[in-house]
Amino acid sequence: MFQRELETLAREELKRLQGVRLAETVERVYRRVPFYRRRLEESGIQPNRIRSVEDVKRLPFTRKGDLWENYPFGLFAVNREEVVRIHGSSGTKGKPTVVGYTKRDIDHWADLCARAIATAGGRPGDLFHNAYGYGLFTGGLGMHYGGERLGMTTVPVSGGNRSRQVALIRDFHPRGIAGTPSFILSLGETFAAAGENPRDTRLEYGIFGAEPWSEGMRETLEDTWGIDAVDIYGLSEVIGPGVAIECREAKDGLHIAEDHFLAEVIDPDTGENLPDGEFGELVFTSLTKEAFPVLRYRTGDIAALNRECCRCGRTHARMSRIKGRLDDMLIIRGVNVFPSELESVMLGVEEAAPHYRLVVTRQGHLDRLTVEVEAAEALVRRLGGTFDPGDPRCGEVCNRLRVLLKEALGVNAEVILRAPESLPRSEGKAVRVLDRRKSDASPLF
């Protein structure tokens, strides 16, 4: 562990620390952020009445729309001159979100990412291949500073340029790698295309996030690379990567850094808190942020909480793998579907490769889902080395997938088997859904 004393705090001591930091955060935003002062006064809340973690339920929610309305610096709790770095979202679904960091925020973030890498199996002296994108996106620089804080040799390769990445992995012999699961999977294909086996590298662990991925994808990544694959979670509005991560020992939920973040799960319709184990919308309150603290930020991510101690010895609460996002959920003829759920089904069929796209169209007043999935190389070999979508064996695979999707998710979908390497490959976050109900056929995510 990177910070054993903090990561193994007794629950009561952890709650006491959270209560103190929550009170300090509420006082801070009340004094320094007009938006929060107004919200707290409208809710009839005096900062000096916030004394324990239970009091968080009395606080107002913060939504992404609030960030847009206060663009660019309206939610900063320090003077702009005290902000040493700015990150933010791309703004593909609206205005960009802008978040700021003081020097102390950057130090805390580096500690959190170092803690995360160590939880995944990293250690000082490792060579660490960082394939997350650098820039306003928090993934690249977050993991970079974490690697350096842990004492690793960090390679800032960023995303894209697969052939160069393959050469660096082959020549530098990294022990750890980080990136989006879809991109790292495509790197494995690039290795294979060059006549090399990615399992022959010296990689031992991978840290994957920035897009929802399934247990089936984990098995595929681990089998492709011969590594332990762990899930990491973060979002720029809260701090970036390092909010939570799976431990390599158990891979059974993501350990939340509860000394820095207070987590809740709520009913997205009523806003009421849900008990541990029930899925709902994940909500975070920052406890140590200076420049950009947030109160009860509604992430839009669907997850559940588990506060039982993990067998790795860490005592902080764990969150489940993200089931999906509220704004990414597809409603197909009254059935709620998340792309990661379809992924889990498809990756259970050996004739299907882990590369897919969901196309949503509308016929009359009804939505229609088409699943395009690439044929696995094993199937192509059984076909004699040439992919023929008209071969009855391809039709059998499509029919089997249709039945499995119906049984598992209750959704009717057309399934189309595509040739290997025919679907677009991601240079970062994968684009999984194409919504053709809109005239511009723009990708949803």
Automatic annotation (TrEMBL):
Q: Which residues form the AMP-dependent ligase C-terminal domain?
A: 334-437
For this protein, the Enzyme Commission number is 6.2.1.30
The domain of life is Bacteria
**Cross-referenced Pfam families, in alphabetical order?**
AMP-binding (PF00501), AMP-binding_C_2 (PF14535)
Keyword line: Ligase, Nucleotide-binding
User: What GO terms describe the biological role, i.e. biological process, of this protein?
Assistant: phenylacetate catabolic process
Catalytic reaction equation(s): 2-phenylacetate + ATP + CoA = phenylacetyl-CoA + AMP + diphosphate
Q: In which pathway does it act?
A: Aromatic compound metabolism; phenylacetate degradation
Which ranges form a coiled coil? none
Q: Keyword Nucleotide-binding: yes or no?
A: yes
- AMP-dependent synthetase/ligase domain boundaries: 80-284
Q: What molecular function terms (GO) are annotated for this protein?
A: nucleotide binding; phenylacetate-CoA ligase activity
Under the subunit heading, UniProt states: Monomer.
Q: Which family does it belong to?
A: Belongs to the phenylacetyl-CoA ligase family.
Give the function comment from the record. Catalyzes the activation of phenylacetic acid (PA) to phenylacetyl-CoA (PA-CoA).
* The protein, known as: Phenylacetate-coenzyme A ligase
